[in-house]
Every structure is written in C-alpha cells, then in structure tokens.
Amino acid sequence: MRSPSGDLVAALDIGGTKIAGALVDSGGARLRTARRRTPAEKDAAAVAGAVAEVLDELRGAPEWPRVRAAGIGSAGPVDASRGTVSPVNIPGWRDFPLVDEVRRLIGGHPVVLVGDGVAMTAAEHWQGAARGWANALCMVVSTGVGGGLVLDGRLHSGPTGNAGHIGHISVDLDGDACPCGSRGCVERIASGPNIARRALDAGWRPGPDGDATAAGVAAAARAGDPLALASFDRAARALAAGIAATAALVEIGVAVVGGGVAGAGDVLLAPLRRHLRDYAALSFTADVEVVPAMLGSDAGLVGAAAAAAEQVGMWDRRRTS
C-alpha cells in the first residue's frame, strides 16, 4: 500500500514493557512493524540497544528510502527541548539523549519527541475520537494518567513535549502524596493501581479468579459491589475535576478517555459524565463531551508519526472541521 505523498515516518512507541516501531504512511497505515521487549531492569546501553534493534529491522524494509522523519512517543518525563527522556518505569534512562541517538541511527533525518500522552492525542485527533474537533483534551488512564491537548486545530505539545499532562493536576489539596512530589494528583486517585489500592483498603476482596487489579475491581463494580463502585466513583470524580479545570483554562470541546482503565466502559464513564456536570458549571465549560478513545494500542505509533509529520510539515492533512 503506497501513501498518496509517498513520504513515510519512522515511528517509535517506547514504554516500560515494550519498544514498538513502524513505518507509517500519510493515511496512518503501518507498512512495516517491529517490536522488542524493554529491558527496563538493565542499564541505559541495553535499553538503547533494543531501540537500535527495532530501527535496524525497519531500516531493512524496502520502504525505508521513503522515510523523511522519525517520531517518538515515550513514557515520561520527556524533555523535547533537550531531546532527553527519563521514564519513571525505565530506571536506566535518566536524561538519556534519545533524540540524538535515534537521529544517528536513522541517518540524520529530523526527529520529533513527545510524551506518550501527547502521542495518543495526536493519533486520536488525526484518526480517532477527537477528529474534527479544534480544541480537545485526550487522556490515557492506565498504570498512570497522562494526556495531551489540541488547541486551535493543532497539537499543542509545549516546549518539553508534556503539555496537557492532566495526571498531575492536583484535585485534592489534602490528598495523598504523589510520587511526582505534589499531593492529591489526578493520577494518585484515578490510575489503575490506585483504584485497586483504594478498593482493597476499603475492604473489597477479589473474586475466585484472584484478580486484584483495576480490571478485577471493574468486574466487581459491574456486578454491583458497593466498594468497587465507590472506588471507581472516586476515580471518576478526580478525572471530572481535572477535565473541568482544563476546560476553564483553554475551552476544550471534547475529552477523549483511553487506556486500560477506560476499558471498564460505563463503570468509569457514566460517573465521570455525571460528576463533570457538577464541576464544569460555567457556561463555557458545561457542554464538554466525554467520549471513549478509538485507536487502542495503535495510538502510540500512529500518534508519534502524526506529531512528527505535523512538526516538520509533512502530509498536508486537514484534521478539523
């Protein structure tokens, strides 16, 4: 399948468990893919070696000569202004010069780095649930809570590639300490591990399958367990407060919710929409729509490609109405 423009982006999606790569065309198709396990328990050189293996596999594809840029969506923190990454879940990488390393491996093409939440946002705006919206917040609710912004029809990644990181908006001034150093963050309340922790602390116990994760709590909530429902309701309130705060600052029209925890469906989304009516009370925030993400596990690679293409001026895409 040949892209209309012919130009491709080499995309990387880097997380604590896997490093994925793809050659992505201007229609969002992944023409070639490669994947390696992230050796997160090893040193910086070993993790960089896994990235090199992914890129080497892509470079062997016959389509490689059509690559004009590379896009990276990485677990954070990232610092696009310096081209470095320090993912919490990859201890061996601290201020690792990922952009320089990738540029060296791919022969000097432009390299664009964004956080994984921003990459998901770029993907959903290009081809998913935020398509056609000029102003949107997209978020990933999973092991952590991340996000990104579209403003005036363009991805707004900020100077360091982290803009829209809703997970570290404080919504509980006297809440639990967050590993980021703040207190009462959305992530500390709404992430999967914290949903499970709160349910267990309240007395909830897993069913016969022993699943003590947020997925197990979601299953219990669907069955009507009051402690499981209460934990998801608390998470939904935190997300609603964060969305309302974002809407008050930048007047978004839609909030797209993705990630593993969002797989709970209406167990999360129904109370989220209900609480948002209470928090988003101003006239210019009251009509924010909450919708589920559409792209799932494809979002990281598609979004990394979209972010790179937008920044370097490839693929004259019209993504908003």
From TrEMBL:
<dbReference type="InterPro" id="IPR000600">
    <property type="entry name" value="ROK"/>
</dbReference>
<comment type="similarity">
    <text>Belongs to the ROK (NagC/XylR) family.</text>
</comment>
<dbReference type="InterPro" id="IPR043129">
    <property type="entry name" value="ATPase_NBD"/>
</dbReference>
<dbReference type="InterPro" id="IPR049874">
    <property type="entry name" value="ROK_cs"/>
</dbReference>
<protein>
    <submittedName>
        <fullName>ROK family protein</fullName>
    </submittedName>
</protein>
<dbReference type="Pfam" id="PF00480">
    <property type="entry name" value="ROK"/>
</dbReference>
